[in-house]
Structure formats: structure tokens, C-alpha cells
Amino acid sequence: MVILNVTAIVEESVKDAFLNYMQSVHIPAVMASGKFEKHLLFQLTEPVNEGFTFCAQYIADSKENLNAFRLADEKNLQTQLQAKFGNQVLCFSSILEKI
Question: Would you say 38 and 59 are in contact if contact means Cβ atoms under 8 Å apart?
Fold first, then answer.
């Protein structure tokens, strides 16, 4: 199992719009790629930071599926998110592997 973990630091002024976009547009688009088995969305509650921090986790059954997503779909979806929210949302990703 491999997890693509995307962390987003979101300004308070766009929190609701960001969550709506994630749940109605972004996450469905990621899942439509067919590369992931399921997803989870979390809000970081500690430590407390400026704005809000969310983590979207996309679970793939193999590194091959994750890599295929990253090559074919990831950049376009990142560009769309950046176009919608600009500097009001800062995202970075990490990869987790079950041991």
C-alpha cells in the first residue's frame, strides 16, 4: 500500500470554498483517474497554525499506480487548484508506504 498525502495550508477567507472544491471537484477528479482505491480527508487540529491545515490522502495498491497518476494527472490537477485559489492555498505532497 502506498499513500499520496497532500497537505494544504488554507487561508481562513477561503476555507469553506476550498473544502467545497476538494469534495466536489478535486477529490472526484483524482479518484476518476482510476489509480487509487480510496481517499481520506483530514483537518490538522494540533499544532495550531495560522489558517487551516488539511491533509488529503489517496491510497494506491501499488507504486506503479501512484507513479502513473503522478505522470499523467497530478500536474494538471495541481494547476487547476492553484488557478482557483492562488496564494491563498499552499500545497505540498509526500509519499507514505506501509511497512
Answer: yes
d(CA 93, CA 60): 15
Three-state helix/strand/coil letters over the chain: CEEEEEEEEECHHHHHHHHHHHHHHHHHHHHHCCCCCEEEEEECCCCCCCCEEEEEEEEECCHHHHHHHHHHHHHHHHHHHHHHHHHHEEEEEEEEECC
Rounded to 5 degrees, what are φ and ψ at 44? -75, 125
In order along its 99 residues, the chain shows pLDDT tens digits of 999 999 999 999 999 999 999 999 999 999 999 999 999 999 999 988 889 999 999 999 999 999 999 999 999 999 999 999 999 999 999 999 989
Q: How far apart are CA 16 and CA 89, in angstroms?
A: 12
